[in-house]
Amino acid sequence: MAESTPVLDFDGWSCPVPLRDSPTIVMGHGGGGQLSAELVQHLFVPAFGSQGDAGTADSAVFELGGARLAFSTDTFVVRPLFFPGGSIGDLAVNGTANDIAMSGAMPSHLSCGFILEEGTELSVLGRIAEDMGAAARRAGVAIVTGDTKVVDAGHGDQVYVNTAGVGLIPDGVDIRPQRAAVGDVIIVSGAIGVHGIAIMSVREGLEFGTEIRTDTACLYPLVAAMLAVTADIHVLRDPTRGGVATSLNEIASAARVGVRLTEKALPVPPEVRNACALLGLDPLYVANEGKLLAFVPREQAEAVLAAMRAHPLGEQATVIGECVDEHRAMVVATTTFGGTRVVDVPIGEQLPRIC
């Protein structure tokens, strides 16, 4: 008896890369890459109206009672909850404080919202709360309001945290992605890719010969030291989801300038480079939680760099590139072999749920 020809169920096939026309939410929609941008621009902004389009800055800037405020919110779904050097608790405080600081504002007040899965041990929640309180004290911010919700067992992953916050922007400070200009020098405050690899080392049980600890920290003290040199800093950004590459692409697109990186100048620690080689990752796309990118006018760059290196949070600050008139809205890197490669925005995220 002849075998029948199998019927292929194309609708049942799946692809490891998120499909751009997917009718459902995929992990890539939360990764800070192209899918995230499309979700915001094509779903949220039309639904919310013009007020929903806050641009590409880390925080919204608005005036209230004659004061200029920066306002930001972020939700943290990191897995695992605890990792070398930190936890979801201090990450939630530092992450929102840093988004506010990237507008030049001093973070002052935070809210926190918890989504807890039924069955989570109270000792786990207690550790997270203690970490949040300690991080808030170090950052000089007050956690002043919050909310708690509980979901059924199996409908969460122990603890999710949302934080929102506000800060006051000093007079004369205008820091936003649209201000990047041809000739600007691009500085990164230290080693990149550390946080993402710290998470992966725990999540996958990998051994890299040395413990890689997260770089999570509140960056406002470093920002204040930079502003003490000059208020004319064009752009600040903490390269979290999507890493340095995604942040630079967003800034280049917002300001319509080209960005040229020098690949050999990128401060990638050997342990991060080795881990990325093992995992097939590019350090430019790995998240950071205690580093910032600064676009500074060339005539101010040397003084700003010196101020950064004099601060504990910027001791390893280095120049990694510049804004150019060519290839506007694109980021390219000069390789160690003298060639040039395009540094594009990823569709999703190399490492999901790391912040």
Automatic annotation (TrEMBL):
Residues 182-329 form the PurM-like C-terminal domain. It comes from Jatrophihabitans telluris. Residues 58-169 form the PurM-like N-terminal domain. PANTHER family: CARBAMOYL DEHYDRATASE HYPE, HYDROGENASE ISOENZYMES FORMATION PROTEIN HYPE. Coiled coil: none annotated. InterPro entries: HypE, PurM-like_C_dom, PurM-like_C_sf, PurM-like_N, PurM-like_N_sf. Belongs to the HypE family. Pfam families: AIRS, AIRS_C. This is Hydrogenase expression/formation protein HypE.
